[in-house]
Write a structure and sequence with these properties.
Chain lengths: ~475, ~475
C-alpha cells in the first residue's frame, strides 16, 4: 500500500521538475514578447517607424535570459519558476523606458545616452547571475565565508569614503570612480552584509533570544547582546553622515533589524532598533543641512521656497507632476514628456513609467515587485535550515525595502533618497547586485526543491527497509 | 521562524500598500489639481501635438502651423508683418498675444463648441485639430493702410459701417511674429528683448491699446453730435467768433489753429466751425453744453467701455470733474481726452450708419478642421449714439469739411467723402498727434476709417492731420471702393 503511494509520489516529482522549467519558459516567452512590444510602441510613438534598432535593445536581454533558463535546466532544475520571468519583465521594461528617454535626448540634440550602456550592464548582470547559479554549488557553502563576507561588506561600504577614488554625485558620496567608470560598491555590500548577518545570526540566535531584565513590563534584551546592534547602528549613522545618504543608511539598518527579528522572534529588537534609527535620523535632520533639506522638501515640496531652492524639491515635484499627467492609464510609452524630470532614467524612472503607463502601470509594476519578493519569502518558508531561511528572507527583504525607499521617495511616502529602483533604473552596480541576489535566490530555491524531493524519496526507502 | 516570516510578509505588504495608496493619491485623487499647477508644463507640451488652426484672410493663411521634425511638432508661421497687430504672436517662450491669445480655445480645438469633435478625437485616438479663424479683413485695404503708413508710427482702423466688420487694422511699427515663434528658446528670448527695446514699441497694438492718443479736433464730432442731439442747436446755430477766447478763471487764451479767423465774421455757425475746425467756437460750445452732456454722448459712442473685437480694446476716456476751462479744452479734444483709433473709427461708423453703431468685429467665421462652421458672429448693434437726423446733419458738415474745408486731402475723385481731421497738441514742444477720420461714399457708406499718425509724423509740430493722416485714409477708402 505504502509502496504504491510512494511510487506515485516519485512519479509526481519526476513530472514536476520539467514542468517548473516549462512554466518558466512559457512565462519568459511572454515577457520577452512584451518587451519587444514595448520597444516597438516606443519607436512608433516617437520616431514613427519600427527600425532594426529595436533588436539592439531586445536581443541581448532575450539571449541572456534564455541562457539563464537553459543553465537552470541543467544546474538548478527545481529552482523557482517565477523569479526569472518577473525579473526579466522588470529589467526589460526599465530598458525600454531608458531607450525611450534616449530618443527624447537625441530629439533635443543631447548626447548623454544610457540605453546601450544599460544593455551592456544587463548582459554582465545576467552573466553574474549565471555564474552564481553555476559556481555556487549550494548556498550553504556561503556559510563558510561569513566573516570574509563581513570584511568584504564593510570594505565595500567604506570604499567611497576613501580619498581619490571616492566620488560625490548629487550630494551623496556613494560612488567610486576608476578609469572613467563609476561604480556604487554599496550595492554589492548589501549582498555581502546579508550573507554575514545570516551567518552571524544563525550562530547567535539562541543567546540573542535569551530574555534579559524586565523594565516597565517590557522584557529587554541582555545588555551585551545589544553590542552588535550598536555596531550596525553606528555604521549606518556613519554612512548617513559621511556618505550623506539617508536611503543607504536606512536600507542596511532595516535589513539588519528584520533579520535579527526573524532570527530571534523578539519584537523588542525591532522596537529598540527603530527607536535608535529614528532618533539618529531626527538628530541628523537637525544638525545636517542636507538631511534637513530632504525633510523640508518631503513635507512641503510645493512651497515655492523649497521648489526654487538649489537642491530643493524641484525634481520631486516635477516627478509628481509627471505621474499626475499620466493619470490612470498613462500617456502610453513614448507619449509623455518624462525627460522633464532630472535623472528620469535612474532615480526617477518610476516617475517616468508612472507618467507613461499611468496608475494602472505602476500598480502592475508594484505587483511584479511584490510577487518577486513573495517568491523569495516563500523560499525562506520552504527551507527547514535556519541559515537558508535567514539568507532568503534577507535577500528578498533587501529588494522590498530598497523598492519601498526609492518608490516611496518619489511618491512622497518617505523623504527622497539616492537609491536606485531595483532592476528598472539605469545603473550598472545596482543591476549586477540585484541579479546576483536573484541568482542566489534561484540557487537557494533549487536546494529547497531538492531537499523536498530527498525527503519524499527517503520515505519509500525506509518503508521498504521496514 | 515561520511565524516571524509571516509577520515580515505583512510588513512588506503594508510597505507596498502605502505605495499603491501614494500612487492613487497622485494619479487619481489629486490628479486634476496637480495637472493644473502652473509649474506643470506638460499641458503646454500636450498642446504642441495639436495642429493649431490657421488664421485666414479671404481664405489665405496669415498664420498657420506647419509640421516640422522637432519635439514641438508644428512651427507657427506668419505670412507678413502687415498682420502683426491682428495675429499677435504665439510663442513657446513668450506666451501668446493678439488673436493667437483671444482665439486660443478655438485654435487649439479646446472650445466647448467643438465638443463633438473632441469626443470623436478621443474615440478615434487622434489629437483634436484646431479650428481655423477667418477674418473680416479686406486684404487690399489692409495692404493700402500698411503701405500708406510707411515708416510713420501710428495706426489705421477701417470698419464697414453697416455691419461693424473690421476691414483693416494696422499698427506701426509692426513686427515679424516669426521671430518669436522660433523653437530655439535663446533665439526667441533675444528677439523678444530686441523688439521690446525697439523704438516705437512694435509689440504694442496702437490701433486698440497702448498709451492712447489725444483726439484733437476729431473729438469735435462728439461735441457736434451732443449739441445737435440736445435739440438746442442746429448746424446753423451761431457762436461768438473772437480771435481769442479767454478760458474762464484763467489767464490762458484759446486760439484757432494757425491763429485763423474762422470765416472772419463776428459769429460762426457750428457747421462752419467744424468745416474750418475752429477751436474758439467749440470751446464756447463745450462750456454751454457742459461736460455731462458731452460725456454722455461720448459714452454712447463707446468711451469708457472695453470693446471686444474680440481683441480687447483699451477704453477711451473723457475726463471727469472738470472746471469750465478744462471743459472748454476737452471740447476740442485736448486736456485729458484719450482715445484709441478704433474708438474714433466707431464714431465715424455710427455717423455713417444713420446713427446706429454696429459692434466692431474681426471674426468672419470659425471653421473646424472638417470645414464645419463652429461659429459665425452675426452683425449686432452696439448702441445708437445719435438719431438718424443728427447723423445726417453731422455727415453733411463732414462732407463740407472735405469738399470745401480744412480736411480737403480726404477727397477722392468721383466719390463724396465725409471726413474730419485732427491735430492734437501734446504739451510744450512735443510733436503733434495727427488724425483723420471719415467715411465714403457719404450717401452709401462702405467704409469708415480712422488714421492716427503719432509723434507728428516725424515733423514735430510742423505736420497737420490734413497733410499726413488724410492721404492715408484716402488710400484705405480707395482700396475698399476699388478706386
Amino acid at each position: 500500500m505504502s509502496n504504491l503511494t510512494s511510487s506515485i509520489n516519485i512519479a509526481k516529482i519526476v513530472r514536476v521538475v520539467p514542468r517548473l522549467r516549462n512554466i518558466e519558459a512559457l512565462l519568459l516567452i511572454f515577457v520577452l514578447a512584451l518587451n519587444a512590444f514595448e520597444l516597438a510602441q516606443i519607436q512608433l510613438s516617437t520616431i514613427e517607424k519600427v527600425t532594426t534598432d529595436l533588436f539592439l535593445y531586445w536581443t541581448p536581454l532575450a539571449a541572456f535570459a534564455g541562457g539563464i533558463h537553459m543553465i537552470l535546466r541543467k544546474y538548478a532544475r527545481e529552482a523557482d519558476s517565477m523569479i526569472l520571468p518577473i525579473a526579466v519583465a522588470l529589467n526589460g521594461l526599465g530598458l525600454s523606458e531608458i531607450y525611450r528617454l534616449d530618443l527624447a535626448q537625441i530629439a533635443s540634440g543631447g548626447t548623454e545616452l544610457f540605453a546601450m550602456k544599460q544593455v551592456v550592464w544587463t548582459c554582465l548582470a545576467l552573466a553574474a547571475a549565471a555564474a552564481v547559479i553555476i559556481y555556487v554549488p549550494t548556498h550553504l557553502f556561503l556559510r563558510r565565508y561569513v566573516y570574509i563576507a563581513m570584511i568584504t561588506g564593510i570594505a565595500l561600504l567604506l570604499l567611497p569614503m576613501l580619498p581619490f577614488i571616492g566620488k560625490t554625485i548629487n550630494g551623496a558620496r556613494l560612488w567610486i570612480g576608476l578609469f572613467g567608470f563609476t561604480f556604487q560598491p554599496g550595492e554589492l555590500a548589501k549582498i555581502a552584509l546579508t550573507v554575514f548577518f545570516a551567518g552571524y545570526l544563525v550562530t547567535r540566535r539562541e543567546s540573542l533570544a535569551i530574555v534579559g531584565r524586565k523594565v516597565l513590563g517590557v522584557q529587554l534584551p541582555r545588555a551585551r547582546e545589544l553590542g552588535p546592534i550598536l555596531v550596525i547602528w553606528a555604521a549606518s549613522l556613519l554612512v548617513l553622515v559621511v556618505q550623506r545618504d539617508l536611503g543607504t543608511s536606512l536600507l542596511y539598518f532595516g535589513l539588519f533589524i528584520v533579520m535579527i527579528y526573524v532570527a530571534t522572534g523578539r519584537a523588542i529588537y525591532v522596537a529598540v532598533g527603530l527607536t535608535m534609527f529614528i532618533t539618529g535620523a531626527l538628530v541628523a535632520s537637525r544638525i545636517m543641512d542636507y538631511v534637513r533639506g530632504r525633510f523640508d522638501s518631503w513635507l512641503n515640496p510645493f512651497d515655492p521656497a523649497h521648489y526654487d531652492a538649489v537642491g530643493g524639491s524641484y525634481q520631486l515635484v516635477q516627478g509628481i507632476f509627471g505621474m499626475a499627467h499620466g493619470g490612470i492609464f498613462g500617456t502610453g510609452l513614448g507619449g509623455g514628456v518624462p525627460q522633464l524630470v532630472p535623472l528620469a532614467e535612474s532615480d526617477f524612472i518610476i516617475a517616468s513609467l508612472g507618467e507613461e503607463l499611468g496608475m494602472a502601470g505602476l500598480f502592475a509594476i508594484f505587483a511584479l515587485y511584490l510577487l518577486l519578493v513573495y517568491r523569495g519569502v516563500r523560499i525562506a518558508f520552504n527551507h527547514s535550515d535556519d541559515f537558508s531561511k535567514l539568507l532568503a528572507v534577507g535577500l528578498s527583504f533587501v529588494i522590498a525595502l530598497q523598492t519601498f525607499i526609492v518608490v516611496g521617495g518619489v511618491t512622497r511616502v518617505v523623504p527622497l533618497t539616492g537609491l536606485t529602483t531595483p532592476l528598472l533604473a539605469a545603473g550598472g552596480s545596482s543591476l549586477i547586485a540585484n541579479w546576483v541576489i536573484l541568482g542566489l535566490l534561484l540557487r537557494i530555491s533549487d536546494s529547497a526543491g531538492s531537499k523536498n524531493r530527498e525527503l519524499l524519496a527517503e520515505t519509500p526507502t525506509s518503508v521498504v527497509n521496514a | 521562524m515561520n511565524r516571524e516570516l509571516r509577520r515580515i510578509s505583512v510588513v512588506i505588504m503594508a510597505m507596498f500598500l502605502s505605495l499603491f495608496v501614494a500612487s492613487s493619491s497622485i494619479q487619481f485623487l489629486n490628479q486634476e489639481s496637480l495637472s493644473n499647477d502652473s509649474r506643470n508644463v506638460r499641458s503646454v507640451y500636450d498642446s504642441y501635438k495639436t495642429q493649431r488652426g490657421a488664421i485666414l484672410v479671404k481664405g489665405k493663411p496669415i498664420a498657420r502651423s506647419l509640421k516640422v521634425d522637432d519635439p514641438y511638432y508644428y512651427q507657427r508661421t506668419y505670412s507678413s508683418s502687415m498682420y502683426s497687430a491682428l495675429t499677435g504672436f504665439f510663442s513657446f517662450y513668450q506666451g501668446a498675444t493678439g488673436l493667437e491669445s483671444e482665439m486660443n480655445s478655438y485654435l487649439t480645438g479646446k472650445n466647448s463648441q467643438q465638443f463633438f469633435e473632441q469626443i470623436n478625437a478621443v474615440l478615434s485616438g487622434t489629437p483634436v485639430s484646431g479650428a481655423s479663424v477667418e477674418l473680416t479683413i479686406n486684404p487690399a485695404a489692409q495692404k493700402a493702410a500698411w503701405d500708406a503708413l510707411g515708416n510713420l508710427e501710428g495706426a489705421v482702423v477701417a470698419i464697414e459701417p453697416s455691419t461693424g466688420k473690421i476691414l483693416a487694422l494696422v499698427s506701426k511699427p509692426g513686427f515679424d511674429a516669426n521671430l518669436l515663434a522660433v523653437h530655439d528658446g535663446n533665439e526667441s528670448n533675444t528677439n523678444y528683448k530686441t523688439l521690446l527695446s525697439t523704438k516705437g514699441n512694435p509689440l504694442v497694438n496702437k490701433a486698440i491699446s497702448g498709451d492712447l492718443y489725444a483726439p484733437g479736433s476729431v473729438f469735435k464730432l462728439v461735441v457736434s453730435s451732443a449739441a445737435l442731439e440736445s435739440g438746442e442747436w442746429t448746424p446753423e446755430s451761431t457762436l461768438p467768433n473772437p480771435l481769442k477766447f479767454q478760458l474762464p478763471g484763467t489767464s490762458t487764451y484759446v486760439q484757432n489753429s494757425g491763429e485763423g479767423k474762422c470765416g472772419g465774421k463776428s459769429t460762426v455757425s457750428i457747421a462752419d466751425a467744424l468745416r474750418f475746425s475752429c477751436n474758439v467756437p467749440f470751446a464756447q460750445l463745450g462750456i454751454k453744453l457742459g461736460q455731462d452732456r458731452i460725456r454722455t454722448q461720448a459714452e454712447l459712442f463707446g468711451f469708457g467701455k472695453s470693446v471686444k473685437i474680440p481683441l480687447s480694446a483699451t477704453p477711451s476716456s473723457y475726463p471727469e470733474n472738470m472746471d469750465e476751462a478744462q471743459t472748454a479744452l476737452s471740447a476740442f479734444g485736448q486736456f485729458d481726452d484719450r482715445v484709441t483709433p478704433l474708438q474714433i473709427a466707431m464714431i465715424s461708423s455710427a455717423i455713417a450708419n444713420k446713427g446706429v453703431l454696429m459692434q466692431p468685429n474681426l471674426i468672419e467665421s470659425v471653421l473646424s478642421s472638417s470645414l464645419a462652421v463652429v461659429d459665425q458672429p452675426q452683425p449686432k448693434i452696439f448702441s445708437q449714439p445719435i438719431s438718424a437726423s443728427t447723423a445726417s446733419k453731422v455727415k453733411d458738415m463732414m462732407v463740407a469739411a472735405v469738399a470745401r474745408g480744412v480736411s480737403s486731402n480726404g477727397q477722392i475723385k468721383g466719390v463724396e467723402v465725409a471726413g474730419k481731421t485732427g491735430t492734437a497738441q501734446n504739451g510744450q514742444g512735443e510733436p503733434y498727434t495727427l488724425w483723420f477720420t471719415g467715411f465714403a461714399p457719404a450717401n452709401n457708406p462702405k467704409v469708415a476709417v480712422a488714421v492716427v499718425v503719432a509723434k507728428g509724423g516725424g515733423m514735430g509740430q510742423g505736420g497737420r492731420g490734413n497733410t499726413l493722416a488724410a492721404p492715408i485714409a484716402r488710400k484705405v477708402m480707395e482700396a475698399v471702393l476699388n478706386k
